[in-house]
């Protein structure tokens, strides 16, 4: 029996930038089939990489023009190992990178970690600790993109912003469909649904954290990602305390903006995107 085909479409991130909504929206198109389990982490997690390409192939459906997955961990690297692996296995793949205001991404990342019980520091401490912290590294979008540009031609990478996806989802999705050479006239009212919002998260108690761990078991991952997220939000609610979105001290925000400015400017030059609204 022939092996399943490898993917030819990969959403490479970024974390907390709408990859769940994007994964779901892409899967709505009749010429695109995204994986049931959204985040495979094949190229970035050693335990997944060691399973080999046969396991990776088995995750993808057959019979579609485009077969894809979405793993935000692909753009969290301090080097280009993930990109090099990807290029070795699927050199012809098209890559989609969705980004957002980098400071807002950091805040959403922080909220998620506090919700899951993996972060106990203040938001001010988090962004002041180190330039090499995971929070800052994932928000350096041009730095992350540059890892892939060492291995893939620019023509195989499409970059968009979460702000554009929210403002005009039909236009944003049409841009991706043109990039993939599929019917860009396809539309759905589902495009405007925001999935996996940070504002819906609460700080989980011990029981809530246990439920979260159970939701990541192999058996639970047999349930489609979007369905599991909806069920999870209902199950966690009785075991979570509502969180207020944290505010970053204006001076710290100013310093953070200054630190990220060079990366933002490089991303604008590379992609032609107007990111002026990130500087407000």
Helix content: 40-55%
Tell me the strand order in the biggest sheet.
2-3-1-4-5
Calculate the mean pLDDT score and round it: 87
Low-confidence stretches: none
Structural class comes to: alpha/beta
Q: What would you report as the Rg, rounded to the nearest angstrom?
A: 19 Å
Shape annotation = globular
Count of discrete alpha- or pi-helical segments spanning 4 or more residues: 13
Count of β-strands: 7
Q: What summary fits the major beta sheet?
A: 5 strands, parallel
What amount of the residues lies in strands? 5-15%
N-C termini distance? 56 Å
User: What is the element string, with H for helices and E for strands?
Assistant: EHEHHEHEHHHHEHHEHHEH
Structure description:
The strands form 2 sheets. Strands 2-3-1-4-5 form a 5-stranded parallel beta sheet, with helices on both faces. It has a two-stranded antiparallel sheet with strand order 6-7. The protein starts with 8 loop residues before the first strand and ends in a 9-residue tail after the last helix. The mean pLDDT is 87. The chain is of the alpha/beta class and 280 residues long. Helix 8 packs parallel to helix 13. The chain has helices spanning 19-28, 46-49, 52-58, 81-89, 102-116, 123-129, 134-139, 141-149, 162-167, 169-179, 206-215, 225-236, 250-271, and strands at residues 9-13, 32-34, 66-70, 94-99, 157-161, 202-204, 240-242.
